[in-house]
Automatic annotation (TrEMBL):
Residues annotated for Mg(2+) binding in this entry: E150, D170, I172, D173, D300
Lineage: Eukaryota, Metazoa, Chordata, Craniata, Vertebrata
Required cofactor names: Mg(2+)
Identification of the protein by name: Inositol-1-monophosphatase
Recorded GO CC terms: cytoplasm
Domain of life of the organism encoding this protein: Eukaryota
Entry keyword set: Cytoplasm, Hydrolase, Lithium, Magnesium, Metal-binding
Oligomer status and interactors: Homodimer.
Region feature (Disordered): 1-27
CDD domains for this protein: IMPase
Keyword NAD: no
Length: 360
């Protein structure tokens, strides 16, 4: 059962303007204060100026409104200084929604399918189109920022993570699902500064579920706060994974051997949705207790890693060490106990890192 608890929408409906993380933000308090002050000014003006003095009263009201606008602008600037990346996150949600609309429309039409690294590593014109929409829109608003995009990398661009604000984008996470019209595809947008993830946005567009996570401010799905299951007993767990695109017999053998070892612990079961980002978000909702995969990329993991941690989960490397965004492997879980137990069972496949650096 998904753990989704009362979010900010309910609180605002009750007249309490708190922050997205459930705390009463200074910006929310100040904005509410401005509204109250404006109401007091307006009532005073209406009482002071007689009805016949329409011009004077209108001018005074206009002055009060102008001062309110100035105060609101000051508050907006203050909020930006307190959280310089909130504007970026808000824009990411807008762009993800726009991109998701393009994806959903494309699902209704015939599509041209191409291959990248191997016959099972698929790409469509929609993948490329959506990535161009996302990157061009963000570049226009934030021209100094950097980008790592799945299709850009496939076309020869680098995937080095620097200290510069960096958008990490998967335009269609679950391309094979998309090609077969299997209804789990997502737009995934992660954002890092100084090589640290700040927020993640995952839009499961067929489901119309917008998952968001902001460092230190919680995780949400369509405005409802998320919480992992908290499960610590691996024998009571449901685990998600994927087998990846490699059809090398030795790699496939390791993938299924890992599943066999986990199933024989025993656990309740293993599921595969076909998109890393949605798998991880399902852990954040409490619908699954863990997810692991070896062989994925930074654009598959970046956004949802923030969402899981902000929902109270843990994210580690498949070796059991600290999470490394460029390592191409991950375990996310409802508790460190389950994450560490999964790591003990996994056989690791050597892979080239996304940043091209050598493994220690």
């Amino acid at each position: 059962m998904a753990r989704i608890v009362g979010g900010p929408v309910q609180r605002r409906a009750q007249g309490w303007d708190g922050g997205e993380d459930g705390s009463e933000s200074s910006g929310g308090i100040a904005a509410a204060t401005c509204v109250r002050v404006y109401a007091i000014i307006r009532v005073s003006i209406l009482n002071y100026f007689p009805a016949s003095a329409d011009d004077s009263r209108s001018a005074a009201e206009s002055l009060g409104h102008t001062r309110l606008q100035g105060a609101s602008a000051t508050i907006s600037k203050q909020n930006t200084m307190e959280d310089p990346w909130q504007e970026c996150m808000d824009y990411a949600v807008t762009i993800a929604k726009k991109a998701g609309t393009v994806v959903c429309e494309a699902l209704k039409a015939e599509m041209a399918v191409m291959v990248k690294s191997c016959p099972t590593d698929l790409v469509t014109e929609t993948d490329q189109k959506v990535e161009k929409i996302i990157i061009s829109s963000i570049k226009e608003k934030f021209p100094s920022h950097s980008f790592i995009g799945e299709e850009s990398v496939a076309a020869g661009a680098g995937s080095t993570l620097s200290d510069n604000p960096t958008w990490i984008i998967d335009p269609i996470d679950g391309t094979t699902n998309f090609v077969h019209k299997f209804p789990f595809v997502a737009v995934s947008i992660g954002f890092a500064v100084n090589k640290k993830l700040e927020f993640g946005v995952v839009y499961s567009c067929v489901e119309d579920k917008m998952y968001t996570g902001r460092k230190g401010k919680g995780a949400f799905c369509n405005g409802q706060k998320l919480q992992v299951s908290g499960q610590k007993d691996i024998t009571q767990s449901l685990i998600l994974t994927e087998v990846g695109s490699s059809r090398n017999p030795d790699v496939v053998k390791v993938m299924f051997s890992n599943m066999e070892r986990l199933l024989c612990i025993p656990i309740h079961g293993i599921r595969a949705v076909g998109t890393a980002a949605v798998n991880m978000c399902l852990v954040a909702t409490g619908g699954a207790d863990a997810y692991y995969e070896i062989g994925i990329h930074c654009w598959d993991m970046a956004a949802a890693a923030v969402i899981v941690t902000e929902a109270g989960g843990v994210v580690i490397d498949a070796t059991g060490g600290p999470f490394d965004l460029m390592s191409r492997r991950i375990i996310t879980a409802s508790s460190s106990v389950i994450a560490e137990r999964i790591a003990k069972e996994l056989q690791i496949i050597p892979l080239e890192r996304d940043d091209g650096e050598k493994e220690d």
